[in-house]
Amino acid sequence: MPFVPNLPTVVIVGADKGGVGKTTLSRVILDYFGAQGLATRAFDTESPKGSLKRFFPSITEVVNLRDSDDQVNVFDTIGTSAITLIDIRAGLLTDTLTLLTEIGFLDMVKDGKVNTAVMHVIGSTMDSFGEIEATSKLLAGAKHCIVLNRNNGAEFFKGIDDVARQALSLGSSIIDVPMLDPRAMEHVDAASVPFGEFEKDPKFSFVMRGKVRHWEKQVFAQLDAADFNIH
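RESULT FIELD:
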């Protein structure tokens, strides 16, 4: 399911479970589209403070997706940027997809009027399996990428292969984000800059920059394989 050029693209990063690394994924996706030279904006739904905004302050707005005015602010303006990324706070993914069904946004996806991908970051619990099944039923016509983020320490159904196969087969693709060296992650977090900016700036550690660069290339390759490149 490649993205169609010249259509607005909406990427929703979320999970109903917390602590699975949604914002880490949002940060690397913003770097990925930025490397393609695409006009990108982001919405951070960790209202009121936000965590994504700390790394991308110039393109990120903090919103409350339970508020009707903020819903208008996000979804009435999809055509104003090539890429819109929405980092969904824990517990709000199903509610957000239900909203998009009710307002007809997912009908636009089915009609080919907007590129949409849901990046579903999972943990290694049966609750995550249930999330995948419920989400897949709402997403006809959209990419439903199941994301295994190794940085959250999950085992992802290790030892119960039948469960893993059933769960992962419900998505349109699987993105397996490798673990970034924890010390390198700490350095980037302390710097409060995007991964891509950190690895290019010589004021930061040469070793840590190399680790971040290698890791981000691996993630970019996963996104390429899932047809996220829209050139």
